[in-house]
Amino acid sequence: MKPPKAAFVIPVYNGQAFLAESIQSCLEQTEKRIEIVVVDDGSTDGTADILTHFQYLDERVKALRFEKNRGRSAARNMGIEAATADVILTLDADDLCLRDRVEKTLKYFKKNPGVDLMYSDCNNVDVWGDLIIYQDQQGRQTDTVPALPFDIDRVRKTLNTYIPCHSSLAFKKSVFEKVRYEDGDVSANGIDDWFFQVKAHQAGFRFGALNRVLVRYRYIPKTRDEEKIRRLKQEVLA
Amino acid sequence: MKFSFIIPVYKKPPETFRNCLKSLFSMSHKDMEVICVFDGPDAVLEAVADEFSQIAKKVVIEHGGACKARNEGAKYATGDFLSFWDADCYAEPEMSAMWEMTLKDNLDCDFCYSGYAWADPNMKGYESEPFNPEMLEHYNYIASMFPLAKDRFPGWDESLSGMQDWDYWRRVVKAGSKGAFIPGFGFVTDVPGADSISGSKNEAEHFEKTKTRIEAVRNKLGDPDRDIVVHGLIYKRETGFIAKTIDADFIWNPFWLVKPYKLSLMVGFHPKSLDICRKMLDRTGKETKRGIYWMGMDSEAFYTAPYFQVKMVLKDFEDKVDFHLCEGERTQNILAEMGIKAALLPFPYDAEKHGIEFPSKFKVLVLTDSVYEKVIHGVIKAMPEVEFVRVVPDVGYNMMDYTVSLQYTKDPRLDNNSRNFLIKGRYLISNVDLPHAGYLPVGDDPVKFKNDIINRIRELKTENKPNMEARDFYLAQASPEKFREGILSLLDKVGVS
Question: Under an 8 A CB cutoff, do B447 and A20 touch?
Answer without folding.
Answer: no
